[in-house]
Design a protein that fits this description.
Structural class: alpha+beta
Largest sheet: 8 strands, mixed
Number of helices: 11
Distance between the termini: 20 Å
């Protein structure tokens, strides 16, 4: 908890310092209207790749856009209650998380649970055939983007290798060209041969979920203004995407609903980005020398944030006039946030519990310090621990040792309960009956995060359910 708070404070300090340096002026940014736009994109933002709508199969456009409208019709999009700098806010964008069964995604201190898309070896029932079709369309889009991302990364690696090769041959004596080419072939080979799973292209593009977004700017009474470049209204502020596998690709499908907003006159806007169009904004993180980019997004366009772009750069979403959907496909790091992990943790905790065969009374098998720490870090066994500690056969020194090890955990748990209760009371969000969540009366902490024990998630009015953390 302290480490996260420290990182947040450092980030805020950087932001304030940057704003102080700017004063009343704006940083420069480029759009396609600027002559230097494509050169800047190539040199400083080359790991942002845009796939135009006309390069994507028309059939895929049709089923994906129909899926968006279906989910909206069934009231499946909700604003999230997130925490920023110790305060709770409802996001201006409404969202739903769809993906592999049992996966979760966490951002801004809020953890979302996936609504599952159809997968082999999983029996998932939907209350309406339209919802099944929508989820099926999104997994088809996911598969398509996975293949595209691998191809784009391979093409980019090959292009970079060729540029390096050409530069090397030009700068050196021709007599050394054979040696250089041989060396470059070895470098190129290493780009395609992963040193380990963490660097393989497949591993970094195997999207396990998509966070879907929807917003109608004309229905929003206020949108935050972009603070550094003067780019106008923001739907999503500057950020790095969280909770991802390191150096994994993020793929985004964009769909703004044409014809639903007032007519625009593109010739009216001579400088800067056209406020009628949605854009993705890019900047080098905490850099005031490199101009930013504002890239217009048209219905059906896809863009890919490749390799370490999400780490070295920040991006934002600039609102247009029309309602917009997007499907943002991610390789979420959910090793401690899946059903499999949660069940495993519960099993560990239960291994220290025993039931008397005659009286059915519960007791603990062990009060060794390490065992108590592990169990108390998984779920709330407090009353049994206190009961065991109070027994007369233990010395005062033994009691103090046990209490000292789990008292900080209980204190942290209590603070998390208070925080989560306060956040829940402030949230006006309602859960759609087709995606119900019920929470039992106690919480625990796992890996420093709030988690719910014995939460029951019910999808499609109880037709498919699973016990969640």
């Amino acid at each position: 908890m302290k480490r996260r708070a420290g990182a947040s404070e450092k980030k805020e300090a950087k932001k304030q310092k940057l704003l102080e340096e700017l004063g009343e002026s704006w940083l420069p940014y480029l759009t396609p209207r600027d002559a230097e736009f494509h050169q800047l994109w190539k040199t400083r933002y080359s790991k942002l790749f845009l796939r135009k709508a006309d390069k994507i199969p028309q059939e895929l456009h049709h089923i994906v856009q129909e899926a968006f409208l279906t989910l909206q019709k069934h009231d499946c999009f909700f604003q999230d209650l997130v925490r920023i700098k110790g305060k709770d806010f409802l996001t201006p964008v409404s969202r739903i998380l769809i993906g592999n069964p049992g996966c979760t995604y966490k951002y801004l201190n809020t953890r979302l649970f996936t609504v599952p898309w159809p997968m082999e070896d999983y029996e998932i029932k939907y209350c309406h055939p339209e919802l099944f079709a929508a989820c099926k369309a999104l997994i088809k889009l996911n598969d398509y983007l996975n293949v595209e991302a691998i191809q784009v990364l391979q093409e980019q690696n090959l292009s970079e290798t060729r540029e390096t090769e050409n530069t090397a041959v030009t700068d050196r004596e021709q007599d050394f060209s054979t040696f250089i080419k041989g060396s470059l072939l070895e470098v190129q080979s290493s780009l395609y041969t992963p040193r380990n799973d963490c660097t393989s292209l497949k591993y970094r593009t195997s999207y396990n979920l998509t966070l879907l977004n929807y917003m109608d700017p004309l229905q929003m009474p206020y949108l935050k203004q972009e603070p550094y470049f003067g780019m106008g209204n923001m739907a999503v502020s500057w950020h790095h995407d969280e909770n991802l596998i390191e150096r994994s690709t993020v793929a985004v499908y964009n769909y703004s609903c044409e014809g639903s907003a007032c007519d625009k006159d593109n010739e009216q806007y001579v400088e800067g980005r056209d406020p009628a169009d949605w854009h993705v904004g890019l900047k080098v993180a905490w850099d005031i020398k490199t101009p930013g980019l504002a890239i217009p997004l048209h219905p059906g366009d896809c863009y890919f944030m490749l390799d370490d772009l999400n780490m070295t750069h920040q991006h934002c979403v600039l609102a247009g006039f029309e309602p917009r959907f997007s499907s943002t496909h991610r390789v979420a790091e959910c090793s401690t946030g899946t059903l499999e992990y949660i069940f495993g943790q519960c099993e560990v905790a239960l291994q220290n519990l025993q039931v008397d065969s005659d009286s059915a009374a519960l007791s603990l098998k062990s009060l060794e310090v390490q065992v108590v720490k592990e169990v108390e870090g998984i779920h709330n066994e407090t009353s049994l621990v206190l009961c065991e500690v109070g027994k007369g056969e233990r010395t005062m020194e033994q009691r103090n040792e046990i209490i000292s090890c789990f008292l900080p955990l209980l204190t942290e748990r209590q603070e998390l309960r208070k925080e989560w209760t306060a956040r829940g009371c402030r949230s006006p969000q309602q859960i759609h009956p087709e995606f119900r969540v019920s929470i039992d009366s106690f919480t625990c902490t796992v890996g420093g995060e709030i988690n719910w024990v014995q939460m029951r998630w019910e999808f499609a009015k109880g037709d498919a359910s699973a016990n969640l953390q």
